């Protein structure tokens, strides 16, 4: 005969509710009680019937997370923080990597992945707001990032323009006047790259310095392309005394290229990034960057999604949240 939750409760000397709380990994359970329940589960060989539980409750206690590229340090660190936040509330997270492909993003909205989860944290890069609205269904959905900033959807993001302006102003205050930007095209004004470039242009304008499109180098957001972009600027004879990589991996690639070419950092060229990934602290020299409030993004997006699932947040319009940022001033641009 199969072991039941009642059997576990009797063996552990606790209530059925306590067994359920342990199985759902609720945070506020005394360690000794949790240990008794876990010991009883192991001794009796109890296996939870997740399918039956979800049919009874209509909930799976699973959340979905769709990101474009888990090899990118920012996304990897954000995913880890979101999983920690979910665990505190008794949820687990299923992660899907979309590779910024429209078909994969649409499948995450409608396929089995969506059916297995109670709500979705979503970073779309390819599909439109209307395409999402057509397929979003009734389960809660919280957007992360800047690709879709639509009043129909809940959104948690960062202060891209304000933070980029603050970082550029810091470089200007250090006497830099020819600040190269890596990771955008001169005409961009939307999306993550465009918003950060807007902040850079605002800081230049406030300082009375004209915008020079020759200082803006397009590049995919990777280390190797950051290095290649700086190499291209040097070989083209573009003069610059600072580099602003629109994310940290671009800046780290640029830093590497400058150092192997004998350019002193920060004496000759200051280098700064954006995201404050863990690697930035351990670069040599350590990287000045923007900390965009990753902890706050994780906590607030998780809280908003769970409030929607539980019916605690009932606003018809999307709730939009922008996390606070900090400048992390380090050796590469003191």
UniProtKB/TrEMBL annotation:
Residues 3-57 form the HTH lacI-type domain. It comes from the Bacteria. Keywords: DNA-binding, Transcription, Transcription regulation. InterPro entries: HTH_LacI, LacI/GalR-like_sensor, Lambda_DNA-bd_dom_sf, Peripla_BP_I. CDD domains: HTH_LacI, PBP1_LacI_sugar_binding-like. Gene3D superfamilies: 3.40.50.2300, lambda repressor-like DNA-binding domains. GO terms for molecular function: DNA-binding transcription factor activity; transcription cis-regulatory region binding. SMART domains: HTH_LACI. Pfam families: LacI, Peripla_BP_3. PANTHER family: LACI-RELATED TRANSCRIPTIONAL REPRESSOR (PTHR30146), LACTOSE OPERON REPRESSOR (PTHR30146:SF153). This is Transcriptional regulator, LacI family.
